[in-house]
Amino acid sequence: MITVVTGNKNKAAEVAAFFAGITEVTHVDFTCIEPQAETVEEIARAKAEQAYAALGTPLIVDDTGLFIDALSGFPGPYAAYVQDTIGNTGVLQLMSGIADRRAYFETAVAYADTDGISVFSGVVEGEITAAERGTDGFGYDPIFAVGVRTLAEMSMEEKNKLSHRARALAAFRDWYITSR
């Protein structure tokens, strides 16, 4: 059994779907103090340490960054804060008139248990759209396109085949299956 530690029930549902038939996944809404750090890996590791110290059960936490080329990598590892403050509308305003819309998401999944902490990363490249599109997903999904569709225009099953979180979770899942 793995506990997903997040305040985001949508993330927890994605993880549960990803591990269906492999192991039981439970969700705990536990707030970690998010450190200021340069990389999503550092942040995920610190959050895993906090959560494991408090809960004492095998668990995963993740951290995701959105890196927009034309904005020198902004918002980077501060993507959650930017989403909470200016949201998709604010990001689209920052991108107004900018032709280079390349961006990438990076997710680090940190797994903690009695053996310590292991971190797994996933990246997906895409671009920031000119307007929000789609009704599925959450966060930046309506403004991040991979190919011709945004992540919000994809079903969870489609998104779980190519997203940054899916790639990090796939690396973790492969390790988890072979290490058990």
UniProtKB/TrEMBL annotation:
Active site residues of this protein: 63 (proton acceptor)
GO cellular component: cytoplasm
Keywords of this entry: Hydrolase, Magnesium, Metal-binding, Nucleotide metabolism, Nucleotide-binding
Catalytic activity line of the entry: dITP + H2O = dIMP + diphosphate + H(+); ITP + H2O = IMP + diphosphate + H(+); XTP + H2O = XMP + diphosphate + H(+)
Cofactor: binding comment: Binds 1 Mg(2+) ion per subunit.
Sequence positions that bind Mg(2+): 34, 63
GO molecular function, one term: ribonucleoside triphosphate phosphatase activity
Source domain of life: Archaea
Enzyme class: hydrolase
Cofactor(s) required, per the database record: Mg(2+)
Classification via Gene3D superfamilies: 3.90.950.10
Residues holding substrate: 6-11, 64, 138-141, 159, 164-165
One GO BP: nucleotide metabolic process
Enzyme Commission (EC) number: 3.6.1.66
Assigned protein family: Belongs to the HAM1 NTPase family.
Quaternary structure note: Homodimer.
Function field: Pyrophosphatase that catalyzes the hydrolysis of nucleoside triphosphates to their monophosphate derivatives, with a high preference for the non-canonical purine nucleotides XTP (xanthosine triphosphate), dITP (deoxyinosine triphosphate) and ITP. Seems to function as a house-cleaning enzyme that removes non-canonical purine nucleotides from the nucleotide pool, thus preventing their incorporation into DNA/RNA and avoiding chromosomal lesions.
Protein name (Swiss-Prot/TrEMBL): dITP/XTP pyrophosphatase
Gene source species: Methanorbis rubei
